[in-house]
Amino acid sequence: MAMKAYSPEFKADAVALYLSDPTRTYASVAKDLGVNRETLRLWVRQARSAGTAPGKTGPVKKTPTCPVASDAVLEEENKQLRARIRELELERDILRRAAKYFAGETNW
After folding, report:
1. Total Cβ atoms within 10 A of residue 95
2. pLDDT tens, residue by residue, 26-69
3. What is residue 55's predicted lDDT score, i.e. its pLDDT?
């Protein structure tokens, strides 16, 4: 069987999907996404060790000390972050709907 190459965005979304719901298991998320359970587990471990995923393991990142930015800069950053949150929530909802759709097709 040939190895599949997954994009970094897909991996990050899969890790975020797994970590977003503490009741979900590796197997259930992996089945919904069509990947191997161990592959998903490896991605989560790598993200936690790199400090890019929330969790109790992994290094603690320290924020550099810098002067406080002006209100206009902070408002612009907040605007951009809110737009990014809306985009990610939309992507997550699309993935959930697709998973439900494909899960419904497998009932023979």
Report:
1. 17
2. 999 999 899 999 999 999 999 988 876 655 444 444 445 556 66
3. 52
Which residues, 6+ apart, have CB-to-CB distance to 60 below 8 Å? 51
Q: Work out the pLDDT band at 101, boundaries 50, 70, 90.
A: confident
Residue type, 69: A
Structure tokens, 99? 């998973």
- The runs of H, that is alpha helices, within 1-108 are 8-20, 26-33, 37-50, 71-105
Q: What is the dihedral of CA 78, 47, 36, 108, to 10 degrees?
A: -20
Which residue bears the tokens 């810098």?
66
Q: What is the dihedral of CA 17, 20, 22, 24, to 10 degrees?
A: -20
Distance CA 38, CA 83 (A): 33
Amino acid at 102: F
- Residues in the chain, how many? 108
